[in-house]
Design a protein that fits this description.
The protein is an all-alpha fold. 71% of the residues lie in helices and 0% in strands. Helix 8 crosses helix 17, helix 30 runs antiparallel to helix 31 and helix 33 packs antiparallel against helix 34. It starts with a helix and ends with a helix.
């Protein structure tokens, strides 16, 4: 044991490398995961990330409509650059999902590793003990409670703000011990970066006061000399508040239960805090939606017991301030790091594991300190107990983390796992129903969505998903009723208006469809799909100039929208701008190679221009991209027949009918070829 402790003391960076390797291995399976939950809302469906020109609006607080209510401008800038680097939007549009988001999840893992390094350095600086720093950072790196914060990519970008927070604390502590001004300035910079990345970090100046109290054995009288040190941090908080208040940032929409009064919210949140404490030490079982029900009756025994326990914990911190200051520090760290989710200001979320990321630093410090005290004991059985604790915590945490990461592999794995623990929660049934609907398994989708509606009758997304299913089933009257209810509950979602318009379009009610598309771009001017769909209506109405304008508007927002280039090409053909149309057809092919109309339309243009070989070539390219499509092979057969190569035409028609024996255009062409060869 002495040799191991000596190694940890003298080989700091090698010891830290061991922690990083173990952390990497525990999270390595997320690299094969796809997008889940809210990921597509940001990394694919949010037009603000399509162009670097959005920097100004992102700094101004722009967010997808369903995620409004927070001000994290630097997080949005990070999202912009990450999306520009890795993309994924075209795959999302074409297939409805992103199977493998390797680059994104690699970023998640690197963010967590950066936090692990910060935790080691911070605790080393705080305790002047590399053994405690090693153990604490090891437990932090492997902790399963972090899976929601790291394996769920959207949340992992929030954690960048937490990383800035940890480095701000580290450099502040470093400046106190080294008396080097640059460390202090670096801390201030990290602090300000943290504030504008993640509002949870606004407690930083209070945390620094707590740390200084700990370093001075909670001697309050010596703190007067340090007040000036906190001023730059408080200024940062005030600046954030002023900017946040001056911007027209929309509030988050809450259902009736979440709109409870202040006292009700805070008292009910006390139950979540008790569960956080349990999960920070024993992270099992884990779920996306923990069952913390809002009880309007404040005499609920669970509320009373929770408040008593939290007050007792606070009292214990005061009692132990001079006796066991580290324990008081950990308790203070816990309360401060979760201050943003006390629901003094409503968040709409009563509990989430991702919120414990910063709080876990304190509990991991406590565990590391306790285990170290066992290891340095002169009693052999305590040393053995310490070793067993290290082995137990390390292997159990690593195993639980690795296993939980598989739950985050896809929406299907996530929501099936969540359904097992929360069959009583409407949002879970909604998400499962939505998945079945995407698979066109409507018989399975409808019961889950109806169950969601019964459990949460004020949840707008349930009505939208039901409307989509009824639309696909041809139950247009029911679809319209559900779209209207979804809009009544949440009138600022562009996607709802857009989908509503699609239903009207299927009914042939083109003016009503166009009205819904216009409403979509009114509530979300960057919603390019609505411009594109409006362009389709214009084409059906032979208003080719309007169609051109709408498709150009869609492409201005999203230049990589393949169907937009196709629609613009069709408009240009009808406006006799053939050369320009051909360019957009080819751009559409590059972006959406499985869109078969591009190949057929180009072949038709080349045929009219008396360029049959070009027509044949583009049809062959289409067949290579979509080998199971009978229409392209039928069109190729027609081209061969027009060139007099009837044998080649018959061969292609046979291939088309092998793909679909009842494909009528192929049967008609075959009949004509048979007459021609008699």
């Amino acid at each position: 044991m002495e040799k191991i402790l000596h190694f940890l003391e003298t080989k700091k960076w090698l010891a830290l490398s061991i922690v990083l390797v173990l952390t990497f291995l525990s999270y390595s399976n997320i690299l094969a995961n796809g997008f889940v939950w809210d990921d597509p809302d940001f990394y694919g469906n949010w037009p603000a990330l399509y162009s670097l020109d959005s920097v100004g609006s992102l700094l101004g607080g722009e967010l997808p409509a369903q995620h409004q209510g927070v001000y994290r401008p630097l997080r949005s800038i990070f999202q912009l650059f990450i999306f520009q680097l890795f993309g994924g939007q075209n795959q999302l549009i074409e297939t409805g999902h992103v199977e493998n988001a390797f680059g994104y999840h690699l970023i998640s893992l690197l963010i967590h590793l950066a936090a692990v390094v910060a935790v080691y350095l911070l605790i080393e600086q705080l305790t002047k003990n590399r053994h405690v720093a090693f153990l604490s950072s090891l437990f932090f790196g492997l902790h399963p409670i972090h899976t929601e914060a790291i394996s769920f990519f959207t949340t992992s970008v929030d954690i960048i703000g937490a990383v800035f927070f940890l480095y701000a604390v580290y450099f502040y502590l470093k400046s106190n011990s080294a008396r080097i001004q640059n460390f202090y300035l670096t801390s201030i910079i990290f602090g300000w970066l943290a504030f504008f990345s993640y509002e949870f970090t606004l407690v930083l100046p209070l945390m620094l006061i707590l740390l200084d109290l700990y370093k001075n054995n909670f001697e309050y009288r010596v703190m007067a000399k340090k007040i000036k040190n906190y001023i730059p941090y408080f200024v940062g908080v005030v600046v954030w508040i002023i900017i946040r208040a001056s911007l027209p940032i929309a509030s988050r929409a809450f259902d009736a239960e979440q709109q409870s009064g202040l006292i009700t919210r805070v008292f009910n949140t006390s139950k979540a805090f008790i569960k956080y404490i349990y999960l920070l030490f024993i992270p099992y079982p884990q779920t996306v939606y923990h069952e913390i029900k809002i009880n309007q009756n404040l005499a609920d025994p669970k509320i009373i017991i929770s408040i008593i326990l939290l007050l007792a914990l606070f009292g214990l911190a005061i009692y132990l301030a001079k006796r066991k200051p580290l324990i008081s520090l950990v308790i203070g760290w816990f309360f401060l790091s979760l201050a943003a989710v006390t629901n003094v200001f409503p968040t709409g979320i009563i509990m989430a594991e991702k919120y414990t990321y910063l709080a876990s630093v304190g509990t991991c410090l406590l565990m590391g300190w306790l285990v170290y005290n066992l290891l340095k004991s002169t009693k052999k059985y305590l040393v053995v107990g310490g070793v067993l604790l290290i082995i137990t915590i390390t292997f159990s945490y690593a195993g639980l983390t690795f296993a939980r990461n598989f739950d985050w592999k896809s929406d299907k794995t996530l929501w099936q796992k969540t359904l097992a623990s929360r069959p009583d929660y409407g949002r879970v049934h909604n998400n499962i129903g939505y998945l079945y609907a995407k698979e066109k398994n409507y018989n399975e989708a409808l019961p889950h969505l109806e169950k969601a509606k019964a459990l949460e009758p004020n949840l707008a997304i349930v009505y939208e998903n039901l409307a989509t299913v009824y639309d696909e089933l041809g139950e247009y009257k029911l679809a319209i009723e559900h779209y209207q209810q979804a809009i009544k509950l949440q009138p600022n979602i562009a996607e709802t208006y857009n989908n509503f318009g699609v239903t009207y379009q299927k009914l042939g009610q083109l003016e009503q469809a166009l009205e819904q598309y216009e409403k979509a771009v009114t509530v979300e001017p960057r919603y390019y799909l609505a411009y594109s769909n409006a362009g389709v209506i214009n084409l059906l109405q032979s208003d080719f100039e309007a169609a051109k304008d709408n498709f150009e508007a869609a492409l201005k927002i999203n230049p990589n929208f393949g169907r937009g280039h196709h629609g613009l090409a069709v408009s240009l053909v009808n406006l006799q701008s053939i050369d320009e149309a051909i360019k957009h057809y080819y751009q559409s092919i590059a972006l959406s190679p499985t869109l078969i109309d591009n190949y057929s339309h180009l072949a038709s243009i080349y045929s009219r221009q008396n360029e049959p070989q070009q027509a044949i070539s583009i049809l062959r390219q289409g067949i290579e991209a979509v080998p199971d499509d009978p229409e392209l092979r039928t069109n190729l057969a027609v081209m061969f027949a027009n060139q007099g190569d009837l044998a080649a035409a018959v061969e292609e028609i046979k291939k088309a009918l092998e793909l679909d024996p009842k494909f009528e255009p192929a049967l008609e062409v075959l009949g004509q070829l048979q007459k021609a060869t008699k």
